[in-house]
Please model this.
Amino acid sequence: MTKTIFQLKDVVKTVNEDTPEELNILDHVDLDIHEGDFITILGSNGAGKSTLFNTIGGNLRPTSGQVIYKDKDITNMSVVKRTSFLSRVFQDPKLGTAPRMTVAENLLLAEKRGGHHHLVPRKLKGEMKRFKNITAKMNNNLDHRLNTATGSLSGGQRQALSFLMATIKKPGILLLDEHTAALDPKTSQNLMDITDETIKEQNLTCLMITHHLEDALKYGNRLLVLHQGKISYDISGEDKKKLTKEELLTFFNDIQ
Amino acid sequence: MSLIISAIGQGLLWSVIGIGLYLTFRILDFPDMTVEGTFPMGAATAVTAIAHGVNPVLATILAFLVGCVAGLVTGLLYTKAKIPVLLAGILVMTASYSIDLRIMGKPNQSLLGLPTLLSGKFLQSLPPYFDGVFVGFVVITVVTLILIYFLQTDLGQAFIATGDNENMAESLGINTDNMKIMGVSVSNGLIALGGALVAQNNGYSDVNMGIGIIVVALASIIIGEVIFGDLTMNQRLVAVIVGSILYRLVLLLVLQLGFNANDLNLISSILLAIFMGLPAFESRFHLKHVLKRGLKND
Model:
């Protein structure tokens, strides 16, 4: 059994508190994430997927409950502090990169994620060769555009860069929020393959929200289904490997 | 000719203000109204200090620091008290009017017969108006070189990223509040420095001299951008300086056409509106297309 790296303990997030519209978007959620877990997350709109990510990332404070990373209570730790061990890729390619800065400048910043930014020269030139090698792995010409402002890249290139930026410094936890959803099928597949490879290679702990049942089944060692703020389905290991799309669909129809 | 030299000198002195505003308006990407208050505050500080026998160099540095503090207040109101940045700037701008009166003890103060940055022996030996050109050139060169160095540091890159994509900056662990506070503070320090320079060049400080400063500063930024188009960050800083000089030359031209100095604020605003609206007009009326066709037919 591998080590538990991250825990949600009885986490509740309530919106519109003390009004008739009061609702628990996270409803007493308990979740143990083990080191090296690659968890795919499914759920309809409003099931609480984004709230779950925002609670893990620190953008939202839970109404009650605890968030724990490596045996340390981080429930009230700020977004900025959490970046020392947590990185994230968003659905919108525009969110993950700085448009007026070049590809190389973005990578350099990402490499210093969670560190201090001092008044010392950034030393970009010496890193160019290494950045070229890293970006070449993305198979999308990014390595020839290191000095291009990211604003003029294609959506696919920008999102590949966002993913690289999230993993260039190994994160303790990687959150992928439908990071291939805004891309065309081919580009999306390419990025998904690279994502899977990178996670295996670096043995990353990762949570990935997706709307593709196929992706949820194909990737990762564990699958969660969120429904009305609860984890209604949690399957891993051999059981997940055996799971078929039909079984998953039946399950979905049952809870609706 | 001497009018043109004077305009170039003015342009160089005023470019400090353009560069200062560039930090907030273009890099951090928000309008900071504090500048209308920090410009006369820098002037009041420097002139009063000189009148009390302080060395002009020290007085100018003091003006910079006072501007930094005023900017710091705006930054704190904006980031910590969550007051919208436009309003935060207006609050500090309004407050600074009273502070300027406190500093000077009266609405204006002359430097007649007092030493200034421009009254050294060497500067007085130069032909008329070259003192402004010299001082302006030295100051803006130093300021620009320091900024270029700063923007290439880890801190500078974090600062740029904050204005470029705040969401991303935060997710990379950059404390964006601190970056904004630092930016607004240094920006207003530079604008107060500009106020100190302009006051010493003009020979007086007036509590009302801040009116329209933001338009003047914006004009130098926008003129530079419209003329030079796509540039790297470092080139952009130089473009602001050139824009500032061009703006002074345009004003000179306007005065030569027979307009009154009292009309300058109106003319400045109209000029800026035209320059800022140009891209929109261009796409609406296909100006580029029309221009190209016009050239072909020649």
In short: Chain A has a mean pLDDT of 91. The longest helix of chain A spans residues 185-202. The interface with chain B takes residues 57, 79-81, 83-84, 87-88, 90, 94-101, 105, 108-110, 112-115, 117-122, 165 of chain A (CB under 8 Å).
